[in-house]
Amino acid sequence: MSPLTNFSPALSELNHRHVASSTSTNSELIAALQDGTLDAATVHVLTAETQSAGRGQHGRSWQSPRGNVYLSLYHPVHMPVSGLLSLIIGLELAKMPVIQTVNEQLQAQGLTPIGVKWANDLGFYQSQASHHSELAHSAPDGSALDSAISLQRTLPFQKLAGILIEPVTKSGKLVGVVLGIGLNVKAAPTLTAQTSEGMSYQAISLQDIHELLHPEVAAATSLPDLQTLYQQMSKALMAAMIRFEHLAIEKPTGHTYYLDGFFAAVCSDGCASRSAFTCYPRL
User: Fold this and answer.
1) Across residues 6-21, what is the average pLDDT?
2) What distances in angstroms separate CA 223 from CA 62, 206, 236, 257, one per listed residue?
3) Is there a smaller number of Cβ atoms within 10 Å at the N or the C end of the chain?
């Protein structure tokens, strides 16, 4: 078994701290690292039951109702952080046991599985599978892929989790990176046209997906508790960091990625397909 997939740290080994409420787990963790409260040379995990000022990509807010996972993991880094780290994290999160189990159940019913939207969201495009089937039979040769990509641009993305990666500096020097994950478990945020983070997707929770299953399947299964999800997510994030540090994904200039090598290394053990938007795990 690969040492990357075999790596399973206990939360206690990752200096895990849980709080009932945080303004933002990313912000709180970064502040503690920068003021010296936490040792920047070791890994730290902060989880919260809710956030009063959760943050998403591009300065957007992240609604944080109770019942969901709000987790930030700090990891020291020894190399520049590239944008592909977010994609690696997404692929590792998609391989968590909870997602694997749900995907097996969804695919058994012919429903679209959860995958990674390039490059930092976890979820799926609504009714994508059926539309792809139609395209495969109706599109002319060579145009099916273009039609599928165009379709993905218009279908609403059902967002289950988001990733926020932020560098940590001390005295102007990069010392590490904070990986923030928000996973909708029991409650999907209510998004409106006035809610900045809801302009390009619809929110969905694991509970919502669980309710899509056949009644007998749903009755026989249950979602993991938050502590179990903290463990699964921390393992996924640690595996992503180890994989990122081992992959030769940048040339010395830091501007060009070895995409073929990246997908060969990361997707060979679970990624069935890739496009400019989505990479779904093969179960």
Assistant:
1) 79
2) 23, 8, 18, 37
3) N
